[in-house]
Amino acid sequence: MTIVPLDTFRAELERLRADAEAAMDAAADEVALEAARIDFLGAKSGRLKAIQKSLGGLAAADKPAGGRHFNEAKAAVTACFEAAQARVAGAGSECRLDAIDVTLPAEPVRLGHMHPITRTIRRVQEIMGRLGFESVDGPEVEDQWHNFEALAIPAEHPARDPLDNFYLAVARGADPLLLRSQTSTVQIRVMENREPPLRIVSLGRVYRPDTADATHYPMFHQVEGLLVEPGTTLAHLKSVLRMFASSFLGHAVNVRFRPSFFPFTEPSVEVDMEWGGRWVEMGGAGMIDPAVLEAVGYDPDSVTGFAFGLGVERIAARRYGVEDIRDFYRNDARFLRQF
Ligand code: DAH
Question: For residue 52, how far is its CA from the centre of ligand 1 (angstroms)?
Answer without folding.
Answer: 97
